[in-house]
Each structure stands twice: as structure tokens, then as C-alpha cells.
Amino acid sequence: MAAPEPKDSTPAVICSHVDITYRVQGAKKMGPVADEDDESLFKNLFSRGRELATIQSVEAVKDVSFVAYHGESIGIIGRNGSGKSTLLRSIAGLIPPTRGRIWISGEPSLLGVNAVLMSKLSGERNIYIGGQALGLTRAQIKERFADIVDFSGIGDSVYRPMKTYSSGQAARLRFAISTAATPDILMIDEALATGDADFKERSSAKVAEIRQQASTVFLVSHSNSTIRELCSRVLWMEKGVLLADGPTEEVVAAYEATLPKKKPPAKPKPLPPAEA
Ligand SMILES: Nc1ncnc2c1ncn2[C@@H]1O[C@H](COP(=O)(O)OP(=O)(O)OP(=O)(O)O)[C@@H](O)[C@H]1O
């Protein structure tokens, strides 16, 4: 499938034959547990002689190539473990490719200033920490503070520690912080899935605004409706391989055709008649 024509023909990201392999060190394979009696279980837990120190390789991304242009909004879809987040994190510069190259024009921002946010601290403190991680000055953050809180819709909860937030509140605040500075390349990993309908509408508008400023948006999501709503182009990953790259409807429809059909919900049983 051919990718749709971009509005701006300046490349923002070039991935060329990218492989990403995780090396998991110190993984140990135990021998099979022979008996269920207490003695052999104890031996299996503590006998060092039976452990095999190994280094396991996980080929998370295999030979992925594509070019993303300024102003494009690109969805990344695929089953669990297909390599979507790994690819995104690599574009964000967090994981170096094992082979191949990634060129980026501009500053990528992975939604999920997560890495720097601290759950013990209040939302307010985290807005400052996250904002500074995005390159904003304290004065700029102060200026945008009210807008960030407004956008996240968390109100006075901003003064409570983030660990007391619901997952939806935390995701909304992360989104609001990450989009407080218009990044050259915005990467969103599943974060939109947790918001309510109103927040989804506002975040869609925000993504559109960011795209208009000629930024590139990457969105990893299991929600095909979110992908359809926000993306003009879709990359479909399958077992680390880029299976398709093309216009959203074509790729999502082809992906959906491979998914198991959902069973219709069971009809609720009628309640027994109330006793007189
Ligand atoms: N830090 C890690 N160390 C070792 N293997 C990892 C690591 N992170 C991911 N993997 C493996 O790499 C593969 C791709 O994982 P990745 O998280 O990129 O997939 P994904 O498509 O984003 O999955 P999901 O939809 O479930 O979030 C999987 O086999 C996963 O187990």
C-alpha cells in the first residue's frame, strides 16, 4: 500500500532498515520441576547448580523503513508485542537502533514526559518538572500554568500528589504538559485511551492544532476509532515487521479483517416476576 501524499514534502523522520533487539541479561532457565513435594520445590528454588545464566535476544523491530513528513499524523497499530512502543521510543531517541538509522528533523517529544514526572509530588510541581524537560523556562511555564490545568480538567487536584490521581486524571495531565510546548514531533503512546468523550474531543483538536504548525504526530493506539479520527496514515506492525504503510482506512480495514470477530453481547436474562 502506498502512503498518502503529505501536505509538506519535507521529511521529519527517516527510518532506514531499522532493527531493534533487546538483550535481556541474567535471565535464568530453570529445569523442570520434577515432583510437587516440598523437598524438590525447595531444591528447585535454591539449587544454584541447576540455573542456566543466559542472554536472551528479543527482536522487537525488524528491518523497518519509512519516511514521515512534516504535518503528517501517523498511527501505529498492531497486536500486543508487535513492536509499536519500541519503534516509537527509538524515534524519540530513547533506544538506539541495533542496525539501520533514524534521522530526525527537529526535537521529538514522547508524550509521556512520564519518565520525569514524580508521583509523590503534586501535579503543580510536575507541571514545572515536565515543562522544563520540554525546554520551557520557569517563566514560560508560569504563563501557561492555568491553561495546562484547564486543559487537563483536573481543577484543584493539581495541588494533590499525582499518586492520588485516577489513571484518567494522570493521563490528561501528562497530555496537557506534553502539548504545552509545540514539539516538532509529538509522539503519543496510548495516552488518549483513558480520557472521557469531552477530553478526547479537546485532545483531537489539540493534535490537529499541532499538525497545522507543521509538526508531525505519531500515535500508538489499540483504539481503531481514535486512529481513524486522528491519523491520515497508518503503519501496521506485526511481530516487529512493518506489514503495511498507507492511508488510514485501507490499512485499518485490512488489520481489522485479521482480528477475531467479536461475539455479540449476551442478551440479559429477564428478571423473575416480583412476588406479590
Ligand atoms: N525492555 C524490554 N526488554 C526486553 N524485551 C522487551 C522490552 N520491551 C519490550 N520488549 C519486547 O519487545 C517486543 C515488542 O514490545 P513492544 O512493547 O514494543 O510492543 P507493542 O506493540 O508496543 O505492545 P503493546 O501493544 O502490548 O503495548 C515484545 O516481544 C516485548 O516483550
UniProtKB/TrEMBL annotation:
Keyword Nucleotide-binding listed: yes
This protein's record includes keyword Nucleus: no
GO molecular-function term, one example from the UniProt record: ATP binding
PROSITE patterns to which the protein is assigned, alphabetical: ABC_TRANSPORTER_1, ABC_TRANSPORTER_2
Gene Ontology cellular component list: membrane
ABC transporter domain mapped to chain residues: 40-264
Entry keywords, A to Z: ATP-binding, Nucleotide-binding, Transport
InterPro entries: AAA+_ATPase, ABC_transporter-like_ATP-bd, ABC_transporter-like_CS, ABC_transpr_TagH-like, Bact_Polysacc_Export_ATP-bd, P-loop_NTPase
Highest taxon of source: Bacteria
Pfam families found in the cross-reference section: ABC_tran
Protein family membership: Belongs to the ABC transporter superfamily.
PANTHER family, A to Z: TEICHOIC ACIDS EXPORT ATP-BINDING PROTEIN TAGH
Protein name, entry field: ABC transporter related
Lineage of the species this protein comes from: Bacteria, Bacillati, Actinomycetota, Actinomycetes, Micrococcales
